[in-house]
Amino acid sequence: MRIIHNLDEMIETARGWLSGGSVGFIPTMGYLHAGHVSLIQAARQECEITVVSIFVNPLQFGPDENPGDYPRNFARDVQLLEQEQVDVLFAPRPDEMYPPDFATYVHCTAPVAQRLEGAVRPEHVQGYATIITKLLQIIRPDIAYFGQKNAQHVALVRQVVLDLNIDVQLRVLPALRESDGLALSSRNHLLTAKERRAAPLLYKALLAGKALLDQGERQLSKIEQAMSAVLAASPLLRLDYATACDPDTFTHPGNILPNPLTDLLLVIAVRVGRTFLVDNLLLRDGVWMM
After folding, report:
1. Where are the domains of the chain?
2. Which pLDDT score is estimated for 17?
3. How far apart are CA 160 and CA 182, in angstroms?
4. CA 272 to chain CA mean position, Å
5. Is pLDDT at 67 greater than 90 in this prediction?
6. How far are the Cα atoms of 21, 110, 114, 178 from residue 249, in angstroms, in the given order?
7. At 18, is the pLDDT very low, low, confident or very high (cuts 50, 70, 90)?
8. Is residue 138 predicted with pLDDT exceeding 70?
9. CA distances (Å), 179 to each of 77, 183, 209, in order?
10. What CATH number has the domain spanning 186-285?
11. Given a cut of 70, is residue 19 above it in pLDDT?
């Protein structure tokens, strides 16, 4: 596996891929887990070249969040990537990605960037849109792979790729979960033992919302109340939102949901101590993507 830290070296390497076969790309912030591995394995099956980036993007952290607290284990990540036969690891230096005179940010005004996470963490959404645009332009992959757990990221990338005419296909794989339902996330390692025991309530709350929908409930406020009630069982969870939205645009579906219901995203965000956790359940074409 080739490890690239230098930005110019990565750009020059990407130019050589035009005749070298299809390129699959998985953007990460490191501290890799089985969810990342599933994306890597999909890329290796579909593409000739597999590239993974590791970059803890400082623009994604709000004023009450410290990028230095994000879990890191670069040596472990390298070992895992070598085992998965990744071709290139791009781990850029922050001062090259954001030099002192950096002054251009990707600010999306679509609902997907303004609602939910965009409302409670606007700097995070702008930071993510900026870094994903830079990485896609630098690496120039044919296919980029994402996990469904970060559903708003996925929808945001779709909007950015469409609006900025970035030549890349997107593949979205289902979220992977622990045995107790907690969606895999690098941030899970920041949880204390008590916080970790409370965290599976996110998935239980989503299942409570799903159960009401399956029973025919179409009043969104009642769905939200049911999910919030499950989360309220632990005083460690501070709710940012528990609601539903259009899975592609993140627009509000209205208080009375359509019947039959075909496409919907149940989505939850909480703060557990200093850790921000999100989870979701996707209904697509009338089928729940569990």
Report:
1. 2-173, 186-285
2. 83
3. 29
4. 18
5. no
6. 33, 8, 11, 28
7. low
8. yes
9. 23, 9, 20
10. 3.30.1300.10
11. no
Neighbours of 262 (CB within 10 A): 10
Average pLDDT over residues 178-199: 95
- The model's pTM is 0.94
Short-list 186, 147, 135, 138, CA closest to 43? 147
Active site residues: 36
- Tell me if domain 2-173 and domain 186-285 are identical in fold: no
Q: CA 263, CA 253: separation in Å to the nearest integer?
A: 10
Amino acid at 16: G
Strand order in the sheet with 275-284: 237-245, 264-272, 275-284, 287-289
Residue whose pair of structure tokens reads 């290796």 in the numeric block? 44
Tell me the β-bridge partners of 171. 145
Class of domain 2-173: alpha beta
Mean pLDDT score across all residues of the chain: 95
- Interatomic CA distance for residues 87 and 23, integer angstroms: 10
- If you search the block for the tokens 């995070």, which residue do you land on? 124
**pLDDT tens readout for residues 194-246:** 999 999 999 999 999 999 999 999 999 999 999 999 999 999 999 999 999 99
Residues in the chain: 290
* 252: its two tokens: 């509000």
Q: Of 221, 229, 228, 233, nearest to 269 (Cα)?
A: 228
Name the packing angle between helices 7-15 and 122-139 (round to 10°): 50
Q: What's the CA gap between 173 and 245, in Å, rounded?
A: 19
Model pLDDT for residues 260-280, shown as the tens digit of each residue: 999 999 999 999 988 999 999
144: its two tokens: 């980029």
State residue 106 phi and psi, 5-degree precision: -95, 110
Residues 6+ apart with CB under 8 A from 12: none
Residue 239 pairs in a beta bridge with 270
Q: What is the distance between the alpha carbons of residues 205 and 231, in angstroms, rounded to a whole number?
A: 6
